[in-house]
Amino acid sequence: MIFDVVLLPEYQGRGIGKQIMKFLTELSKAPAFLLYTMPGKEGFYAKLGYRKMKTAMAKFPDPGMQQKAGYIERLAPVCLGAANSFGRRPARC
Ligand SMILES: CC(C)(COP(=O)(O)OP(=O)(O)OC[C@H]1O[C@@H](n2cnc3c(N)ncnc32)[C@H](O)[C@@H]1OP(=O)(O)O)[C@@H](O)C(=O)NCCC(=O)NCCS
Fold first, then answer.
1. What are the tens digits of pLDDT across the range 58-92?
2. 7 CB within 6 A, ligand 1
3. Fewest CB atoms less than 10 Å from the CB: which of 65, 69, 88, 91?
4. pLDDT mean across residues, the chain
């Protein structure tokens, strides 16, 4: 699991971030990596082959603030009702 790479402004844009990521991943020798980053840095990681996960989820005590800051998607209605014997969910879903 990688919890973001952050460089001081004077060290940014010199290829150091890319080198740190390469060093970390080569050092660990793991076959896969989970990454947690902040809004605005997705492009940096995308260039290194990281992709957004479709099933990653998070629960925060202040979801409104996290949504505003760009960490989570807008709350969507979630269907918690069980499917009936025909495999159908209640109409409100
Ligand atoms: C994001 C960060 C780790 C990247 O490290 P870096 O050393 O500056 O990046 P590199 O020079 O290794 O860049 C590698 C590539 O990623 C691109 N890139 C860098 N930052 C990017 C970003 N935020 N979004 C999209 N692409 C980015 C570069 O243009 C470069 O592209 P190229 O290979 O096509 O030339 C670094 O800029 C950083 O720490 N930024 C601070 C952001 C932050 O966290 N601020 C809040 C602090 S609380």
1. 999 999 999 999 999 987 666 666 666 676 665 55
2. yes
3. 91
4. 89
Pocket test of ligand 1: the residue of 24, 36, 41 to mutate, having most ligand atoms within 8 Å of its CB, is: 41
Residues in the chain: 93
> Is there a contact between 90 and 82 (Cβ–Cβ < 8 Å)?
no
Q: Please give the model's pTM, rounded to 2 decimal places.
A: 0.85
């990281």: which residue's tokens? Answer: 50
Amino acid 83 reads: A
**Nearest Cα to Cα of residue 36 among 57, 16, 63:** 57
* Predicted local distance difference test score (pLDDT) of residue 53: 96
How remote is the CA of residue 68 from the centroid of ligand 1, in Å?
22
**Alpha carbon separation from 1 to 52, 73, 80, 87 (Å, rounded):** 14, 22, 30, 37
Q: Is the CB of 13 under 6 A from ligand 1?
A: yes
